From TrEMBL:
It comes from Crossiella cryophila. The chain crosses the membrane at residues 18-35, 41-60, 72-96, 108-129, 141-163, 175-192, 221-239, 259-281, 293-314, 320-341, 348-366. It holds the Pfam family Na_Ca_ex. This is Ca2+:H+ antiporter. Keywords: Membrane, Transmembrane, Transmembrane helix. It is found in: Membrane. Residues 40-194, 224-365 form the Sodium/calcium exchanger membrane region domain. GO terms for molecular function: potassium:proton antiporter activity; sodium:proton antiporter activity. It is a multi-pass membrane protein. GO terms for cellular component: plasma membrane.
Length: 368
């Protein structure tokens, strides 16, 4: 593709009007609500601004992704979503006190279950209902799954069994090792996905007309990148503003505190779910799996190092170890995902199984 010239069309004309309006509105809401108590009207506006900021952030990440192409596109989406997730976790932990010690664990585990079961399941189901049988590259998705399961085991399972510190926690050196290992393995995966074996992660078959849509100009991509940063700043600030109300609502409902982590993960991954389903409906299941498994891997590979670094100034313990129920669900997810990926083909049955596991996770999160 030739680089854009000075005669390229106006950048704003290439972006939907709502995507230009939402980021500054979210910033205005942040300024108006910062440091104030939230009444009912302001709380609704802040929640709407938070959701709009997340959706706009992912939209602008998609614009930048279209500019750079696959598999860089799914990588940018995964990193953007993970930045939002990490920002929300750190923000809520810094303002939540000792009661938020397990928030990082709950959010990362919820993200793994949502991506590996929820997003994969709904993409498989939607795509298979339209195309009956869908094919994908098992060696690419299998590699992503292997790295994800290995890091989840090291970061979220082993703390339950270590004995150097009280409770399901890591000592400082253990947490440092987990953070470095996560970051290194994520970097290796990105190198394989974007350089060494980039062709493994490209969709199989010919492109549909949607894939031939003109890429945005460089100026449009830069504008989207700037709006993406603005969205991230607004999301972090609005999350800090709304966090007391969110935690109070969970406590008032008598639900476990782990539900807060589930709500955060659902919020940041909803737009990516839509993108994965749209790809599956276009018979691009490999793109859907890249989105789902890439987000799962980014969630564990980037969140744990960030939380490990943030723990230097965060007070209180950092609970990472999963309970017995969560480990059973994780093991079931690993087995089901392996059986789904090993054949390189998917039908409605695989989608239904993943959604059943996801439904069990949600149900047990609400009624433990």
């Amino acid at each position: 593709m030739n680089p854009p010239t000075d005669t390229a069309p106006d950048t704003s004309a290439a972006l939907p009007r709502w995507s230009l309006i939402v980021p500054p509105l979210a910033l205005v809401l942040l300024v108006a609500s910062w440091g104030r108590g939230l009444n009912a009207v302001l709380l609704i506006l802040v929640c709407a601004g938070l959701a709009g900021g997340v959706i706009a952030a992912v939209h602008h990440a998609e614009v930048v992704a279209h500019r750079v192409g696959e598999p860089f596109g799914t990588l940018i989406l995964a990193i953007a979503v993970t930045v939002i997730e990490v920002a929300l976790i750190v923000t809520l932990m810094s303002s939540g006190g000792p009661d938020s010690a397990s928030l990082a664990r709950d959010t990362v585990f919820a993200a793994i279950m949502i991506t590996c079961n929820g997003i994969v399941g709904v993409a498989l189901l939607a795509g298979s209902l339209r195309h009956r049988v869908q094919e994908f590259r098992a060696h690419a998705s299998g590699g992503a799954l292997a790295v994800t399961l290995a890091l989840v085991t090291v970061c979220l399972v082993l703390p339950t069994f270590t004995i150097s510190s009280a409770g399901p926690t890591f000592t400082g050196p253990q947490l440092a090792f987990a953070g470095v290992a996560s970051l290194v393995m994520y970097a290796v995966f990105v190198f394989v996905q974007t350089k060494r074996h980039r062709d493994y992660f490209l969709p199989k078959g010919d492109c549909t007309p949607d894939e031939h849509a003109p890429a945005p100009t460089a100026r449009t991509a830069w504008l989207s990148l700037a709006l993406l940063v603005l969205c991230l700043v607004s999301v972090v600030g609005l999350a800090k503003t709304v966090s007391p109300a969110l935690e109070s609502a969970v406590e008032s409902a008598g639900a476990p505190r782990s539900l807060v982590g589930l709500l955060i993960a659902l919020l940041v991954l909803l737009p990516e779910t839509v993108a994965a389903v749209r790809a599956a409906l276009r018979d691009r299941l490999q793109t859907s799996l890249n989105l789902a498994l890439g987000s799962a891997l980014a969630s564990i590979g980037l969140t744990i190092p960030a939380i490990a670094l943030a723990s230097i100034w965060l007070t209180g313990p950092l609970v990472l170890g999963l309970g017995a129920k969560e480990m059973v669900l994780l093991a079931l997810t690993g087995v089901v995902s392996t059986l789904t990926i090993v054949s390189g083909r998917a039908t409605v049955l695989q989608g239904a199984v993943h959604l059943m596991v996801f439904s069990a996770f949600v149900f047990l999160a609400v009624t433990p």
